[in-house]
Amino acid sequence: MNWLVTLAGASLVLLVLRDVFHTLWHPTRHGGLSRLVMTTLWRLASFLPLRRRASGLAGPLAMVVVVAVWALAAVLGWTLIYWPYMPQAFTYAPGLHPADHAGFEDALYVSLVHISTLGLGDIAPADGWLRILAPMEAIVGFALLSATVAWTLGIYPALARRRALALRLSHLDRTHPTTEQIDADAGAAILDGLAGAVSVVSVDFQQYAESYYFHDGDDRTSLARQITCAVNLADRAAGARHPDVRLSAAVLRAALDDLAAILDERFLHTHGSAREVFEAFSHDHGRHTGAGT
After folding, report:
1. In this predicted model, what pLDDT tens digit does every residue of 27-36 receive, in sequence order?
2. 51 and 187 co-located in one domain
3. Which sequence ranges are marked TM in the entry (predicted)?
4. HEC assignment per residue over 9-60
């Protein structure tokens, strides 16, 4: 029976480590547990009366919940590893009676002490293999802390790049460039810049898939609101007389198609055209697409 409890604990720890790996360090996948938490909170926010305000909290709150779930699951896993071997495989400080400190809550206490790297020493493993596992739990705890900091520091620059692209599209939409202005060297340069920015955002959605669940503030900085401006601009430039403009329009269109494919595969599942995917993206973020440039 003891080995079954230990096996369950080890499996839980491995599940947490796998989820952390696929969420933070594997650029083409998203951890199952973290994705479930984020998707659930995002969908719940969409049903609340103040959708935009609730959606604005969904992303940050989901990150906090995911980290909390990782930490609690890791603590519980190590608790199940220690519990079957208490008190016989542990040493106790003077004044503590082993028979009185052999329950689940005591194993939980030992797990919390080790994962937080406090090292109080009043209850410590004595058997050889447990003495090796205890420092490993401390390493896992430190890794979780480091991963959380790295996750936070990585996702907000990705959000800034996405919002900067949306703001640039908003500026273009408000200036209403004419066909003659687009069909020029300056138009080709603008299209090239947009294609590069769209490609960066596509990579960000792959590397930081959880950034999808962050609200983008007002309409000017919302990519879900502004992305159709890029689609319309690429369509207009496709018929330009200037060959460089046509080439730049084709590159922008390819970048938009790639972005739509990523959004559809990972989040929306519409199996539609790029324009249909972007409309679904806008709807999912509570936006109404603009008329475009």
Report:
1. 555 557 788 8
2. no
3. 62-85, 138-159
4. HHHHHHHHHHHHHHHHHCCCCCCHHHHHHHHHHHHHHHCCCCHHHHHHHHHH
